[in-house]
């Protein structure tokens, strides 16, 4: 699996870049690096990147800005590196588009494990009803193989985890899923998320695919039970 993936590591601390690069290359991944957000965006726009390890605090363009810019067009998996350990900060990272996070100082071995887990979740085979699903006469279009979601013909940038949650819901229309069920089906039993994380994914998806996120027509809440997808 490793040789198929190219990983972009972005951090202004050269020691961290060197260690992470060495560990990932030892596992067989191809690794490219950037020392700031501007260089990271240039690399991402010109190379086929499968996953990004992204520091939060960087010169020129911050990690938050890089993540937000990438999310306008791509669902590429992003692991955020942050010195902030509080739950609210982790929620904020997920809100702007990160799929996972690690708090500095971190174990390079743990990062490798998380990279592998996120790549499995992002690129494992899925078998939906069709490769491209459309709803409400083309208002919402989902290309499952290419992981592209379009709203009224315009691509919207879902994170990998948001895309997984959406795929589970829309390929099981009308079925109610609890938070635990969504986590298990989308990410597997080893996922270390929590209830607020699932709610954040749902909130973000609604912001991107609903005309009015406060009055959703696609992803509705079944109070006391969970969420379901209404195709029309």
UniProtKB/TrEMBL annotation:
The modification 4-aspartylphosphate is found at residue 55. Residues 6-119 form the Response regulatory domain. SMART domains: REC, Trans_reg_C. GO terms for molecular function: phosphorelay response regulator activity; transcription cis-regulatory region binding. Keywords: DNA-binding, Phosphoprotein, Transcription, Transcription regulation, Two-component regulatory system. One of its GO terms (cellular component) is cytosol. PROSITE patterns: OMPR_PHOB (PS51755), RESPONSE_REGULATORY (PS50110). It holds the Pfam family Trans_reg_C. Gene3D superfamilies: 3.40.50.2300, 6.10.250.690, Winged helix-like DNA-binding domain superfamily/Winged helix DNA-binding domain. Residues 130-231 bind DNA. GO terms for biological process: regulation of DNA-templated transcription. Residues 130-231 form the OmpR/PhoB-type domain. May play the central regulatory role in sporulation. It may be an element of the effector pathway responsible for the activation of sporulation genes in response to nutritional stress. Spo0A may act in concert with spo0H (a sigma factor) to control the expression of some genes that are critical to the sporulation process. This is Stage 0 sporulation protein A homolog. The lineage of its organism: Bacteria, Bacillati, Bacillota, Clostridia, Eubacteriales.
């Amino acid at each position: 699996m490793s040789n198929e993936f190219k990983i972009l590591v972005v951090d202004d601390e050269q020691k961290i870049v060197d260690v992470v690069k060495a560990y990932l290359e030892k596992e067989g991944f191809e690794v490219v690096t950037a020392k700031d957000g501007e260089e990271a965006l240039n690399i991402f726009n010109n190379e086929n990147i499968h996953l990004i390890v992204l520091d939060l605090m960087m010169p020129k363009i911050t990690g938050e800005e890089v993540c937000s810019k990438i999310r306008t067009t791509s669902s590429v998996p992003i692991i955020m590196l942050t010195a902030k350990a509080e739950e609210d900060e982790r929620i904020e990272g997920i809100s702007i588009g990160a799929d996972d996070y690690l708090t500095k100082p971190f174990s390079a071995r743990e990062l490798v494990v998380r990279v592998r887990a996120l790549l499995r979740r992002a690129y494992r085979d899925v078998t939906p009803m069709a490769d491209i699903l459309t709803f409400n006469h083309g208002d919402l279009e989902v290309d499952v193989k290419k992981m592209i979601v379009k709203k009224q013909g315009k691509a919207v940038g879902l994170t990998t985890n948001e895309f997984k949650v959406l795929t589970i819901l829309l390929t099981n229309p009308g079925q109610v899923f609890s938070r635990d069920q969504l986590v298990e089906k989308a990410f597997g039993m080893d996922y270390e998320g929590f209830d607020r994380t699932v709610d954040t994914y749902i909130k973000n998806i609604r912001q991107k695919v609903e005309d009015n996120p406060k009055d959703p027509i696609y992803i509705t809440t079944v109070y006391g039970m969970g969420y379901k997808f209404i195709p029309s």
